[in-house]
Amino acid sequence: MHVDRTGGGSFPRFTLMTLAGRTLGAIPPTAQVLLGIVSVQIGAALAKNLFSVVGSTGTVALRLFFAALILVLLWRPSLRLNRRAWTVVVSYGVVLGTMNLCFYLALERIPLGIAVTVEFLGPLAVALAGSRRWLDAFWALLAAGGVVLLMEGRGDLDLVGFLFALAAAACWGTYILLSAALGRHTSEGSGLAIGMAFAALVAVPFGAAESGTALFQPWVLIVGIGVALLSSVIPYSLELEALRKIPPRVFGILMSLEPAVAAIVGLVVLQESLHMLQWVAVFAVVAASAGATRGSARPEV
């Protein structure tokens, strides 16, 4: 990440930013979303292994701090933004930081697959918002039924964790809309880098208060960098680039595989097995999103 060691030249910075932008731009937007899904779920599984050492908020602090540092070094964003752009960037950062705190607090209490399935109601709501088709009402009811099955599938499901996941869902829906605005008001990864810095400012005080000096263990810092790359830098860069080319509603629909990927990653990496009804619930939410995708794909083209 040593972009410009001389301190005065602009060529290295321009070359790296241009290369990154062209690399992301060469990937089809649908593939960008799918790659982001896989990356963020593997990152979440890796992050969960840090909970016993630095806690959930400490893990969020590491993730967002290193993500912000990497993105700022990569893009070297300009601070010359108009008032509207600053409003969008700051709002994006605050929502992003809050979303991550809520999600990791949920992840500390409930399995990855369940946390993501509940959180996914946010983008699904964006996908269905404003629709007047009766079939879309059916998909919404199917998703709601999936959430009910999650609660019924295992009696000891932590209610606080479930509520944190719901809060993360609300933030995620807002994040999708703000990401689209961020893409319109900023160039390349500049807005993402500044927004991530504000997200880190939201999370770091909570993480430092919970974990203290444990954050500075060398191996913890190394794992934190890996979590930042997998859970923030790679997926958010891919998503932001995708949102430059596709509407927020389509983006929300394309995320339909997220709960299933999370459940599979949780099973394989974390050995978190779900009960049969909970698997049915996960795929009910996936089916609801897939159905909404089929019903709304033509109008959006």
From TrEMBL:
Pfam families: EamA (PF00892)
InterPro entries linked to this entry: Diverse_Substrate_Transporter (IPR051258), EamA_dom (IPR000620), EmrE-like (IPR037185)
Keyword match Membrane: yes
Membrane topology value: Multi-pass membrane protein
Record's keyword annotation contains Cell membrane: yes
Membrane-spanning parts: 23-44, 50-74, 86-106, 112-130, 137-153, 159-178, 190-209, 215-238, 250-270, 276-293
Family designation: Belongs to the EamA transporter family.
Stated name of the protein: Inner membrane transporter RhtA
Organism of this sequence: Kibdelosporangium persicum
